[in-house]
Structures are given as C-alpha cells and as structure tokens.
Amino acid sequence: MANVVVVGAQWGDEGKGKIVDWLSERADVIARFQGGHNAGHTLVIDGEVFKLSLLPSGIVRKGKRSVIGNGVVLDPWALIDEIARLTKQGVEVSPDNLMIAENTPLILPVHGELDRARESQTGVAKIGTTGRGIGPAYEDKVGRRTVRVADLADRATLESRVDRLLVHHDALRRGLGLPEVDRAALMAKLEEIAPQILPFAAPVWKVLNEDRRAGKRILFEGAQGSLLDIDFGTYPFVTSSNTMSGMAATGTGLGPNAIDFVLGIVKAYTTRVGEGPFPTELQDADGQRLGERGHEFGTVTGRQRRCGWFDAVLVRQTCATSGVSGIALTKLDVLDGFDELKICTGYELDGETLDYLPTAADQQARVTPVYETMKGWSESTAGARSWADLPAEAIKYVRRVEELIQCPVALLSTSPERDDTILVTDPFAD
C-alpha cells in the first residue's frame, strides 16, 4: 500500500493542514516527523476551526492513529494544553489514538528562555524565531544532553540528564546575564508532567514497521517549509530541523523505502514569516491585497506574513531536493480579480541570469526576480471542485506553474474547506 509524505515546498504556511486532513481520510496512520509547536495548522471542518501545533492533523478524524515521531521536539506542557483545547471542541485524544516516540526530545522552559534571550540581544541580527525553544532543544539533541520522553519514567536517569543539561545551560545563561536554572523547580515540573505524557509513550519505530507490514497506509506530515530546511533553506533564517521529505524516514524510525509518494504543498503565490531573503516580496498594493485576501497571519504567532508573486525558481528547487512526485496547489482563489499576475522565472545577479537560488547569503539578498506576466481572471475560483468550474485563465496559470516547476499538480485547493479540492492524482493510489 502507498505511503505518502506531505511537505511544504515554500517557506511554510502553504495550507498543509487542510491537505493532510483531506488525505487522512485515505490513511490509517498520520505521523509528524519534525519541528515543534512553532508549526501551525488550521483546519476548517463543517465551518468549525481547529488550530493545531503539535498534534498531527489526523487527530480530528475518528479511527485514525496519530503519531509524534522522534524527529519532533516536544514541549510537554504545550501538548497537554493543546489536548485540552481540542477536548473542549469535542475531539477525543487518548493513548488509543495518539502515540509519542519514546526517544522524542523534550523542550524544557530553559529552551524558551534561551531562545528569547538570544533574539533580544542588541547588535545581533535576529533570526525571527517564535521564541518557543525549538532551536535550543535541537541543539541539546545533537549535543547529547537532551531529556527524552523515556527519561521521564526513571527518576535516576532523569536527574542525570538534567544535571548534564544544566552544566551547559547555566554557563550560557551567565554569559547572557540570566540567573542559573532552579534545578529543584525544573525537576518538580518534570515529575508533575510525567504521568500526563508517559501513557502516550511507545516504540513508534516498531509500531510503524508493523503497521507497514500489515498493509496500513501511513501519511507523514511535515511542518514548516522546505525553504526553512536547516541545510537547504535560506540559512541562517531557517528552522532547526530538516523539513524535507527525507526526514520522514529518520524522524519516525522507518527506512526510505517506506516512502512511495511525496506531495509538495505549494501556495499559488509566495509568503514568508520572519526575517530573511524574499526575492519576489511585494511592498505595494498588490502585496497588501494578497495578504488581506489570503488572511496571511501565522496560526501560532499571529505574525503578519510577507507576501509576493509566485516564485517558480524556488519551488522547482524544493521539488528537486525533496523528490516531489506531485504538488497540491493551494489558495488559487486569492488570485481572483487581479488584472495581471506575475511569475518569477529566474533571477538576475551581477549581470547574469540564474535558474536557482544561490547558497551564499549575500547573493540571496541581492538577486532580483525575472518576471513573466500572465493575464488574470475576474471570475471566482472559490469553492471549485472540478476543472470545469475554473476560468480558462486560471487553468492556464496552473498549467504554466506545472511547466516552470517541472512537476505536475496532483491536487488543487480552492478554499479552506476540506471538500473544495480538485483531485488530479490520488497520492495513495496503489
């Protein structure tokens, strides 16, 4: 049976939540494989809005197993709060439908404090983080000093992990002018939260491998976007994990042969939150119009997103690095009513034309987009559920996007509602 990875193919906020929720009807298991509660997915189901940060989008569907994999960094307090919010909306969350990998690293209060202290330093360029401790938690993971979910079950191990962690953090905090960590208070918090988290703990790698052998369909849900990947994104204005499809395997404990289809989520224009280069950014009436029509505010932070024309160069690049099989093109309806639309087909840099985004930060900041102009459409595409419902110019726009990114459209989303989706290729088709 086919297993599908869903990744954002831009800077995030492409509409992954709706697509994953839509696909989860065909899946048996939905697994998060990287990121933390800096991710934000908004689902609209029968007019009700669900806002998720840590929980996989499949949690709102009954009869599905949701998984938080080892590639995620988990804030246990944020998770419990999120579960409580969903419970009030009538969503049941229990060990029967949610598993957390035992080797998942925890985000502790010290991580958020360090994150925010760094971002507030004067004279230091801001990365634009959410201040939620994701970066410092990943640092501790690779520094071999993290506290993991399984450690909560044994007091002696937990104390040893905390002591190793604090040797590092107390030194950093002194340098930043922060007081040393109150060890007793931290231990008390961990001991208090442990019984709420441990019932969800499981050997996810083992369960998922068994599920796969049993022929169950697995949907791997990514967070953020490929352009925020720690290796291939616009470094250093990136997140602290690998956001591309290859991480689905290592972030859950499956091998790469478990991936059958990679679906890249692509917005019909471009947005970005936070700092960093953005070649097609619009700081004019068109950019403002895109932001207002697209309701471009972050699910987690509420920060206004920067908006610009569709950048085919970047999407072609991310489709290559993530091995995208097909894209889900979202928010086409936001482009309704524009007389003209522009698509970036290349960059100019120092008199040369480039068909990719260079790696060097100074070059990324200096590239200027080369645009192709297309005729817009006045009719509405909102709620379209078949190609016949789309204006001819909208279809031409979609086909041109396919040509430029060298990847076919598998799904087309025309509103936040789950059913307002045109299916071209079912990623789960055998």
From TrEMBL:
One GO MF term, please? adenylosuccinate synthase activity
Q: Where does IMP bind?
A: 13-16, 38-41, 130, 144, 224, 239, 303
Residue positions binding substrate = 299-305
Residues at the active site: 13 (proton acceptor), 41 (proton donor), 141
Its keywords, alphabetically, are: Cytoplasm, GTP-binding, Ligase, Magnesium, Metal-binding, Nucleotide-binding, Purine biosynthesis
Q: Where in the cell is it found?
A: Cytoplasm
Instruction: Cite the annotated pathway.
Output: Purine metabolism; AMP biosynthesis via de novo pathway; AMP from IMP: step 1/2
BP terms from Gene Ontology: 'de novo' AMP biosynthetic process; IMP metabolic process
Please give the superkingdom of this protein's source: Bacteria
Please list the residues that bind GTP. Answer: 12-18, 40-42, 305, 331-333, 413-415
Reaction catalysed?
Answer: IMP + L-aspartate + GTP = N(6)-(1,2-dicarboxyethyl)-AMP + GDP + phosphate + 2 H(+)
Cofactor comment? Binds 1 Mg(2+) ion per subunit.
Binding-site residues, Mg(2+): 13, 40
Q: Name one GO cellular component term.
A: cytoplasm
InterPro entries the UniProt entry points to: Adenylosuccin_syn_GTP-bd, Adenylosuccin_syn_Lys_AS, Adenylosuccinate_synth_dom1, Adenylosuccinate_synth_dom2, Adenylosuccinate_synth_dom3, Adenylosuccinate_synthetase, P-loop_NTPase
This enzyme's EC code(s): 6.3.4.4
Task: Tell me the cofactors it needs.
Answer: Mg(2+)
Q: How does it assemble?
A: Homodimer.
Q: Which family does it belong to?
A: Belongs to the adenylosuccinate synthetase family.
Describe the task this protein carries out. Plays an important role in the de novo pathway of purine nucleotide biosynthesis. Catalyzes the first committed step in the biosynthesis of AMP from IMP.
Protein name per Swiss-Prot or TrEMBL: Adenylosuccinate synthetase
